[in-house]
Amino acid sequence: MASIKKLLIANRGEIALRVMRSARELGIKTVAVYSEADRQALHVRFADEAVCIGPPPSSESYLRMERIIGAAKETNADAIHPGYGFLSENEAFAKAVINAGLIFVGPPPKAIEIMGSKLAAKNAASKFKVPLVPGTTEPVSDISKAKRISKEIGYPILIKASAGGGGKGMRVVNNEEEFSEQMQRAVSEATSAFGDGSVFIEKYVTRPRHIEFQIFGDQHGNVVHLFERECSIQRRHQKVVEEAPSSVLTPELRAKMGEAAINVARSCGYYNAGTVEFILDENKNFYFLEMNTRLQVEHPVTEQITGIDLVKLQIKIAEGEKIPFRQEELKIHGHAVEVRVYAEDPANNFLPDIGTLKTYRRPQGHGIRVDDGFEEGMSIPFYYDPMIAKMICHADTREAAIEKMIRAIDEFQITGVETTLGFCKFVMEHEAFRSGNFDTMFVEQFFKPELLNKSVIDSAIAIIASTLAAKVFEEATNGTSNHDSGPAETSSRWKANRT
């Protein structure tokens, strides 16, 4: 088995720090790479060594494979962890790392290639009898043929980019009249975003829930799942709130979906960390959506309910070790909720907001975890994803975790940029979320900017009312003390000690 002594993290921000902390606990030295915009970033200061790999744009730095591998060689690192985003799901990068004689802390390149194509992924999963949404199994380019297929499937249908992700190259078509226009738009967007205009068609499941399973495989043929995460609260097809476990899965359904997730992993010879995503319809039918061949942004909620450090497990598997537990040994402990704190303005269609963190004070307390890459006084660069932090709350029950999250959101002080904290509190307090009766259309169905403004105003009124009540109580108490309890200095001494 190979032993990793020095690990280069081919990423930035909170995920780079997250990986570095686990590596350090394993006695592994760490190397940071950074763009010129990240020269003062926390991950650069935390690492044992750091190498600048280019100008601020990611295309000239974090996406330059040769510079990252060069930095690993320069610092004598023997492994590379890709984090998430950037090159994490690029099979060419995984191959280049391995060909350079380095350990890639991730899945085999072939698995990345198969699961990187939604059609190839569906074909692989179908051989293991994994439930699939009705649709095409090959790319479609002929509009008349595509129309005929869509009519057979039944509207509404979904046109999706085969190489897509993040909602790009995706179009919902409600009837035949709008098909041609939406098809052309999907192909154009897919070509622009991924350099691949191939699309496929599948039945559009209305009001689905987005359920994903964390899986792990080792290089000895063992595969397990670490239960599910509910990721249905989304904006622009991207997640904002996640939780584990889901509030709607029965033990029986969890077992079936978990088995399907493991079969997806087996279908492509998968090892290391991966996430198998499903959609769940109103009748509790589930269908394979895609597989993310990397560590997910929302992995901390799984860590909270299982007690397993997923990054350490990734490293151990990359070194050739076996998974140290069996499926039946895993248990769910309590409930965890995660919110993503973005520098975005929810009142303005969640548009990114850049600026300096004039105030940045994290919440504290038992069961609260904040993964971030910023501190007070730092600026949010406009070159990268605008996520400031992930906040995770863990408690014995879902209700307790939600209440803890509301308290933590109230304590999280950020000024200088607009954030999604107010929106996240709106979600936590909404009856649909609290009852568990929600789906991926939550934002479209329930959220309006004016409701968020009302929530902010109500909170301000509550704070003012509380302050006034305290002042009235203090004046009344002082008056009573001076009248009933003897000399005035007794009251003033109590007041001095109290403040």
Q: What can you see in these coordinates?
A:
This protein has 499 residues and is α+β, with helices and mostly antiparallel strands. The protein has four domains: 6-105, Rossmann fold (3-Layer(aba) Sandwich), CATH 3.40.50.20; 134-203, 2-Layer Sandwich (Dna Ligase, domain 1), CATH 3.30.1490; 209-452, D-amino Acid Aminotransferase, Chain A, domain 1 (2-Layer Sandwich); 457-498. The protein is 39% helix and 23% strand. The protein has 17 helices and 20 strands. Strands 13-12-9-10-11-14-19-18 form an eight-stranded antiparallel β-sheet, with helices on both faces. Helix 12 (398-411) runs antiparallel to helix 13 (421-429) and helix 16 packs antiparallel against helix 17 (488-498). The radius of gyration is 25 Å and the shape is globular. Mean pLDDT is 90; it is low at 459-463 and 479-499.
CATH superfamily of the largest domain: ATP-grasp fold, B domain
Rg over alpha carbons: 25 Å
Shape: globular
Query: Considering DSSP H and I runs of 4 or more, what fraction of the residues is helical?
Result: 25-40%
- The CATH class of the largest domain is identified as Alpha Beta
CATH topology assignment of the largest domain: D-amino Acid Aminotransferase, Chain A, domain 1
Number of domains: 4
Quick description:
With 499 residues, the chain is α+β, with helices and mostly antiparallel strands. The C terminus is likely disordered.
